[in-house]
């Protein structure tokens, strides 16, 4: 099992609502969807920016 760390972020209510709906549609937990989105975002960034 991978160790996880909690991280609090503040987002607009509309974005939170949309993320919750998308996580349900994709059959993922909210945490898993956010992890997937951030990982994909970072994978697209040039390595020197990381």
What is the element layout, followed by pairings?
Elements: H1 13-26, H2 30-44
Helix pairs in contact: 1-2
Describe this structure in words.
By secondary structure, this protein is mainly α. The chain has a domain of 32 residues. Helices cover 58% and strands 0% of the residues. It is globular, with a radius of gyration of 13 Å. The model has no long low-confidence stretch (mean pLDDT 92).
Entry keywords:
2 helices; mainly alpha; 50 residues; CopG; globular; 58% helix; Arc_rbn_hlx_hlx; CopG family transcriptional regulator
Radius of gyration from CA coordinates: 13 Å
Number of strands: 0
Distance between the termini: 25 Å
Which residue ranges are poorly predicted, with pLDDT under 50 across at least 5 consecutive positions? none
- Apparent shape: globular
- In DSSP terms, counting alpha (H) and pi (I) runs of 4 or more, how many helices? 2
Strand content: under 5%
Q: What composes the largest sheet? A: none
- Mean pLDDT, to the nearest integer, reads 92
Category from helices, strands and their pairing: mainly alpha
Report helical residue fraction.
55-70%
List the secondary-structure elements in sequence, H or E: HH
Protein name: CopG family transcriptional regulator
Domain Ribbon-helix-helix protein CopG: 8-44
């Amino acid at each position: 099992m991978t160790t996880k760390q909690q991280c609090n972020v503040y987002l607009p209510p509309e974005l939170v609502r949309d993320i919750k709906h998308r996580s349900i549609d994709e059959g993922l937990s909210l945490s898993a969807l956010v992890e997937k989105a951030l990982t994909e975002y970072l994978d697209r960034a040039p390595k020197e920016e990381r």
